[in-house]
Amino acid sequence: xxSYFSKIFGASPVKPLQAHMAKADxxxxxxxxxxxxxxxxxxxxxxAGRKEISRNEHEADALKKDLRLHMPxxxxxxxxxxxxxxxxxxxxxxxxxxxxxxxxxxxxxxAFPDGLKKPYMELLCRCxxxxxxxxxxxxxxxxxxxxxxxxxxxxxxxxxxxxxDMIENDTDKMEIEVRAVLFGLEKDLNPVEVMxxxxxxxxxxxxxxxxxxxxxxxxxxxxx
Length: 224
Description:
- Helices cover 84% and strands 0% of the residues.
- The chain is built from nine helices and no strands.
- The protein has helices at 2-11, 15-29, 31-39, 43-70, 81-108, 114-138, 141-146, 152-185, 191-223.
- Helix 5 (81-108) packs antiparallel against helix 9 and helix 6 (114-138) runs antiparallel to helix 8.
- Mean pLDDT is 89; it is low at 1-11.
């Protein structure tokens, strides 16, 4: 692993950050298939999906640890080492949230009521869009590095961040709608199940918010 990082640091100091974000995005991308299995009561495939999410999260965690260990403290680049590590922390929350969402659902074998399935899946897929857009934005960092965080590449990255903000705004509105649907179904559901359903919705909304925070951190890099 150390030789791997030595190699990619030689090419670009932001390559490991991009690899980590891609892995976090991969975690989030597995959630729709996981929930399809859950909605169908297919707990065997749901458990297998959760296992894959957990594996991806562990891989992201390993990348995070190696990046922290191998990023030189005297790194000469147009942005501060601390700023890159700040982006890394937010990226890592994406992988963690994905694992937490799947873990709660599997641990409780949460049964989603029929009326909640479609609006929740729409919210989830929009949050996955946010993760994908965050990853797309981070993948432009090496280009920014090569041009010294200036020029037309800055405008391109800013446009990506603007799109990410728009997606996150969608997820905020959709989360409110999903919570309203669940509120309307509460009286016919087990109160404990309702509590955990709200928890899953909250974590899903937080996933969208966290993806947007990746964009906010990158925007700070551009500003400095």
